[in-house]
């Protein structure tokens, strides 16, 4: 395999690197538990929306002890003029929804590599990826109702990714789930022990790197669109996808 590694357009809050066709986006504010702010969201959205044709997969992870402990509050401080609902939608809703949609509808497979806390936005980011690899010490929660805030944006990200019973339980009880509980509840794909965490992530990423972009993007296209199709439509779409992918081999 030819190795091709270089730093992409990193920003202080989000490190980017491209290695053998895998773009790794690393949340990089470990002092806060990698709390996400608007600039970090915009950086990730831009990276995903401007993928080069050579990118085969995206890996999302965080530096330090935590994957992502939540979000830095984007709301204006109290005491000033009361912001309009339209302004709050612009400040609060739009950046988060754009971030979730960018990852969910990325044209390539996405892998979240999760350690420590994945709370609120962190839980959404972890679980909106196509595959979620969790360290045995990872912890998942949606705690917004503790502040009497409905986690509507997180729910919008996850309503089609996790069982509704699981989502409702996380929202209403604010209980923190262990990695093993998150696996049983359908939040994550696989849980590994600490000593195997990095090697498993590396092995999975090497698997992406070993495939061609056409095959991987064809799989992502099918997995994105087929679930909303009828059985007949899904079969016809499968025929289209395989035909298109195989034609690229000639």
UniProtKB/TrEMBL annotation:
It holds the Pfam family ECH_1. Transmembrane segments: none annotated. InterPro entries: ClpP/crotonase-like_dom_sf, Enoyl-CoA_hydra/iso. Gene3D superfamilies: 2-enoyl-CoA Hydratase, Chain A, domain 1 (3.90.226.10). PANTHER family: EG:BACN32G11.4 PROTEIN (PTHR43459:SF1), ENOYL-COA HYDRATASE (PTHR43459). This is Enoyl-CoA hydratase/carnithine racemase.
């Amino acid at each position: 395999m030819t190795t091709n590694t270089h730093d992409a357009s990193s920003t202080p809050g989000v490190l980017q690197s491209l290695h053998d066709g895998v773009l790794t986006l690393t949340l990089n504010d470990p002092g806060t538990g990698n709390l996400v702010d608007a600039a970090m969201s915009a950086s990730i959205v831009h990276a995903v929306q401007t993928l080069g044709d050579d990118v085969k997969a995206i890996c999302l992870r965080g530096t330090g002890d935590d994957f992502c402990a939540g979000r830095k509050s984007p709301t204006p401080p109290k005491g000033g003029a009361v912001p309009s609902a339209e302004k709050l939608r612009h400040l609060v809703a739009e950046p988060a929804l754009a971030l979730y949609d960018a990852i969910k509808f990325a044209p390539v497979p996405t892998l979240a590599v999760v350690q420590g806390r994945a709370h609120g936005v962190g839980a959404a980011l972890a679980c909106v990826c196509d595959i979620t690899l969790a360290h045995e010490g990872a912890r998942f929660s949606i705690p917004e109702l503790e502040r009497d805030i409905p986690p509507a944006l997180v729910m919008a990200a996850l309503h089609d990714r996790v069982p509704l019973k699981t989502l409702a339980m996380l929202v209403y009880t604010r209980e923190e789930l262990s990695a093993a509980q998150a696996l049983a509840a359908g939040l994550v794909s696989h849980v590994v022990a600490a000593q195997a965490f990095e090697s498993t992530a590396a092995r999975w990423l090497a698997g992406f790197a070993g495939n061609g972009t056409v095959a991987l993007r064809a799989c992502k296209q099918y997995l994105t669109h087929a679930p909303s199709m009828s059985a007949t439509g899904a079969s016809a779409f499968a025929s289209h996808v395989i035909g298109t992918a195989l034609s690229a081999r000639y």
